[in-house]
């Protein structure tokens, strides 16, 4: 603690920051997982942690452009992924194999992402303190 | 709960947030503001309209930190700070302004 910071910022700065990765594996509609997972991520942003999101398997469909949910009579929450940047959640990782298997590439997605191979995704998961799956 | 405006009844949740945001209009906003004891000025409307636009774009009501930052970006630093926003909406800009704007309670509001 010193004169210039007065101690308050010091206390806040000394909070432990953990690496949290939220792993999304399910299609956006049909179950509540994708929406609930997104809400947890938005809430987690309030705690100043190192938060990232990973999209694998059918979870890649969560980010696909041009979602129309009228026939399903549920809310299209896909625009909310574009709000993540404003919440300082900018680390979005998508597994290449999952995209390719579904005939998709990064241009089909709503937001800028980093596309990683399955092996690289596994390595990244290993570096996390907490991995939470939805 | 319900809200009565110009002889019409609108449904709200138990905290008074409008349930169907497509029903919102300025008269409803004025009644919601009265309930919050907020005297609507041009500056209040600016924030309320900003929130409606944000919701329209992103389908969520922003957390207060995110709202403050986004307002600063669009309307300038003199408005994008907690002091300014809390002066307009003393019981929490996100909570009160969202209610008046007819939006759900902000996600990540703790």
UniProtKB/TrEMBL annotation, chain A:
<dbReference type="Pfam" id="PF02635">
    <property type="entry name" value="DsrE"/>
</dbReference>
<dbReference type="InterPro" id="IPR027396">
    <property type="entry name" value="DsrEFH-like"/>
</dbReference>
<comment type="similarity">
    <text>Belongs to the DsrF/TusC family.</text>
</comment>
<dbReference type="InterPro" id="IPR017462">
    <property type="entry name" value="Sulphur_relay_TusC/DsrF"/>
</dbReference>
<protein>
    <submittedName>
        <fullName>tRNA 5-methylaminomethyl-2-thiouridine synthase TusC</fullName>
    </submittedName>
</protein>
<dbReference type="InterPro" id="IPR003787">
    <property type="entry name" value="Sulphur_relay_DsrE/F-like"/>
</dbReference>
From TrEMBL, chain B:
<dbReference type="GO" id="GO:0016740">
    <property type="term" value="F:transferase activity"/>
</dbReference>
<protein>
    <submittedName>
        <fullName>tRNA 2-thiouridine synthesizing protein E</fullName>
    </submittedName>
</protein>
<keyword id="KW-0963">Cytoplasm</keyword>
<dbReference type="InterPro" id="IPR025526">
    <property type="entry name" value="DsrC-like_dom_sf"/>
</dbReference>
<dbReference type="GO" id="GO:0097163">
    <property type="term" value="F:sulfur carrier activity"/>
</dbReference>
<dbReference type="InterPro" id="IPR042072">
    <property type="entry name" value="DsrC-like_C"/>
</dbReference>
<feature type="active site" description="Cysteine persulfide intermediate">
    <location>
        <position position="109"/>
    </location>
</feature>
<dbReference type="GO" id="GO:0005737">
    <property type="term" value="C:cytoplasm"/>
</dbReference>
<keyword id="KW-0808">Transferase</keyword>
<dbReference type="Pfam" id="PF04358">
    <property type="entry name" value="DsrC"/>
</dbReference>
<comment type="similarity">
    <text>Belongs to the DsrC/TusE family.</text>
</comment>
<dbReference type="InterPro" id="IPR043163">
    <property type="entry name" value="DsrC-like_N"/>
</dbReference>
<dbReference type="GO" id="GO:0002143">
    <property type="term" value="P:tRNA wobble position uridine thiolation"/>
</dbReference>
<dbReference type="InterPro" id="IPR007453">
    <property type="entry name" value="DsrC/TusE"/>
</dbReference>
